Every structure is written in C-alpha cells, then in structure tokens.
C-alpha cells in the first residue's frame, strides 16, 4: 500500500515521530526510519549509502549541536514520495550566545513500496519493530547550513 492510501493524519503522526527522533540529537531511532540500503543526500555533500553510513554521518554532526528542532511548513505526497518543507532551528554546542539559527529546508523522502502499511509501526519507546518499520529508502535534504557550520567553526576557534 502506498502513502496515497493512508490518511494525512497517519502521515503527520509518522512525521512527528521522525522529527522527535531527529531532535534528540542521537541516532537511536534511525533504524526505525531508514532501510538498510537507504541513501541520504544532505545539502551539497556526496550521497551516503547504507544505514550504518547514515548513522555514522549523523554521529559526526550531532555532537556539534546543543539543540535542533523542526517546524513543518508544508507537506505533499505523490505515490511513495513525501515532499516536506521545514524550518530547522539549530543551536551550536558551546555557543556563548546560544544563537538560534533558523534554516529553511526541503526534504524529499523516497519511501518503500509498502510504506503505507509500515509507517504506523514506528515506536520511539524502544519497543519498536526496528527494521520492519523502516520506510525511507532515499532522502534528499536541500538546505544551506553554511551559517550553522560557520558558527561551529567560530566556536572551535574561540571567535565567539
């Protein structure tokens, strides 16, 4: 069953879980979202292929942040593709001003064929089905995070 066969409320509920998992700044829930062979393309970086490599990618970034949160602006679904417009609000770890950096982003989620049957299986309590709930086989995130990474560099160099 494709995403077109499930209610908007079910998709929004899944999206809330996606954001809740990401906003913890850990990769603890990634196995519940990304398939083992998923591909992630983040901004202008080369694609990252495979769940373990995606986890490694985020494990390198998350420790540089003290918080991250998402504000959904809009979403649209076409068969098994989810188009999500968000604001992502970052605070860099060690930033003496704790400046909130609000970055507009577009995420394009390519989902598995039976995504509609699986999106309700994500359980962030730790009792979830893991890979059985994973529906994201590809994610492209379009954003300009240069201000965030510039601030990270400023903290590292002690310029802030």
UniProtKB/TrEMBL annotation:
InterPro entries: NTF2-like_dom_sf (IPR032710). Gene3D superfamilies: 3.10.450.50. This is SnoaL-like domain-containing protein.
